[in-house]
Design goal:
Elements (H helix, E strand, L loop, with lengths): L16 H6 L7 E2 L2 E2 L1 E2 L10 H14 L9 H20 L8 E4 L2 H13 L8 E5 L8 H10 L2 E5 L20 E7 L11 H10 L4 E4 L11 H4 L3 E5 L10 E5 L1 H6 L10 E5 L2 E4 L13 H17 L1 H19 L5 E4 L8 E6 L4 H10 L2 E2 L1 E3 L4 H7 L4 E5 L6 H17 L3
Parallel strand pairs: 3-15, 5-6, 5-7, 7-8, 8-9
Antiparallel strand pairs: 1-2, 4-10, 9-10, 11-12, 13-14, 14-17, 16-17
The structure holds 4'-deoxy-4'-aminopyridoxal-5'-phosphate.
The site of 4'-deoxy-4'-aminopyridoxal-5'-phosphate has 13 residues, from α4.
Length: 419
């Protein structure tokens, strides 16, 4: 195949792409003189007008602190904050809004569970099961509580394609197993984990399960009840919402049994110098003034995503992934890292003999934004024997023309390096 004969196929029929793209003002700009192609959605997605306007509208009209005053603006701010909680709860199939704790993002959600839920239950010799494809955010918090207590991590191995090797999965569980924590979708490989089946195994052994949904919620329907997990963590900014806001969903019985993670205003029922009585969840875990505008923006992002349908978004993105993967194979020296099925729309790759940072820099001069580096998943890099990769990750607004621009950019990289 030659580089000049891209396969032309119709864009996904289910989505009105032009309309979707019109919703995202940031996409309509030039970078280094070329129309921007934003393919770093795994790191953070762009924001639609609905979210930008929700943030702006909140600050223009309703801004006040929540839960604290009787005046009208305080009431409006509180209503908007709690309405966002309801939307998030419904979006992931929670039983009740109070099972949703607003946090800064996935990282804070996992740290909250590690310290408030697991740490008090952990003794020397206990075990925490993780998988070999986790983001650092789903490794280091567990490592920290394990180091403090003398517990240890056990890791589900990853095969050559990037799938988990589950033959011996059940044998990892024993009387000392206290937690299973795993990604729903790998940010480095795109692998979609069989979270429901793995949760079933853990539950048979009475082991609680946390799922890191950072790369899942914007790309497929998530139903925490159907999965059967105990905790589900995700970030607003990877699902078209603002940065600095995310959610931890937890079973109410667990949340009620957990000590607060931080102390401060909002999270107490009564305070004296002799001792304090904590508020019920979720307020117990939301010490201090929360990111009210962020929650409002996240609520708007949920509504935006629901209107499109996460499954429709995911189908469109997978279509782009298949097209991009096929075309990437035309490029001399390119090796895709992560070929397991089922796979979300994440295309990680290396160009033989060329450092990923050079790939990223040259693509940037072509207006194409990709992520390069270890992707906060160093164990995955070690598993595949590469120091770094380049990653194109797709969102609902990406197009086949943009994939063509990526591919043309990669030819350019090869050209610069004399290949
Ligand atoms: N887990 C996964 C799988 C991720 O992709 C990310 C973000 N790259 C995180 C956790 C951390 O998310 P945040 O930085 O929003 O806390």
């Amino acid at each position: 195949m030659t580089r000049h004969a891209p396969e032309r196929m119709p864009e996904s029929a289910a989505l009105d792409l032009e309309r979707v793209r019109a919703d995202f003002p940031v996409l309509h700009q030039r970078v280094h003189g070329r129309p921007l192609v934003y393919l770093d959605n795994g790191a953070t997605t762009q924001k639609p007008l609905a979210v930008i306007e929700a943030l702006s509208g909140y600050y223009r009209h309703d801004n006040a602190n929540v839960h604290r005053a009787v005046h009208t603006l305080a009431q409006r701010a509180t209503d908007a904050y709690e309405a966002a909680r309801q939307r998030v709860a419904r979006f992931i199939g929670a039983q009740a809004p109070n099972e949703v704790v607003f946090v800064r993002g996935t990282t804070e959600a996992i740290n909250l569970v590690a310290w408030s839920f697991l740490r008090p239950r952990l003794r020397a010799g206990d075990e925490i099961i993780l998988t070999g494809l986790e983001h650092h955010s789903n490794i280091v918090p567990w490592q920290l509580v394990a180091e403090e207590t003398g517990a240890r991590l056990r890791v589900v191995p990853v095969d050559e394609q990037g799938a988990l090797i589950l033959d011996d999965f059940e044998s990892l569980f024993n009387a000392r197993t206290r937690m299973l924590a795993m990604a729903h979708v790998s940010n480095a490989l795109g692998t979609i984990l069989p979270v429901q089946e793995m949760t079933d195994v853990a539950r048979r052994h009475g082991v609680p399960v946390l799922i890191d949904g950072a790369q899942a919620v914007a790309h497929q329907t998530v139903d925490v009840q159907a999965i059967g997990c105990d905790f589900y963590a995700f970030s607003g900014h990877k699902m078209y919402g603002p940065t600095g806001i995310g959610a931890l969903w937890g079973r109410m019985s667990h949340l009620q049994a957990m000590r607060p993670y931080q102390g401060g205003g909002e999270m107490i029922r009564r305070v004296s110098f002799e001792g304090s009585e904590y508020a019920p969840p979720p307020a117990r875990f939301e010490a201090g003034t929360p990111h009210i505008a962020g929650a409002v923006g996240l609520g708007a992002a949920v509504s935006y995503l629901e209107a499109i349908g996460p499954d429709a978004a995911g189908a469109h993105e997978r279509d782009l992934l298949q097209y991009a993967t096929r075309r990437a194979q035309e490029i001399p020296g390119l090796r895709v890292i992560g070929t397991a099925e089922p796979k979300a729309a994440i295309l990680s790759f290396v160009l033989e003999g060329i450092h990923a940072h050079d790939v990223g820099t040259i693509l940037d001069t072509e207006g194409v934004a990709v992520r390069v580096g270890h992707l906060c998943a160093m164990p995955v890099m070690q598993r595949f024997g590469v120091p770094a990769v380049a990653r194109a990750s797709f969102a609902v607004y990406n197009t086949r023309d943009e994939v063509d621009r990526l591919i043309a950019g990669l030819w350019k990289v090869n050209e610069v390096f004399g290949r």
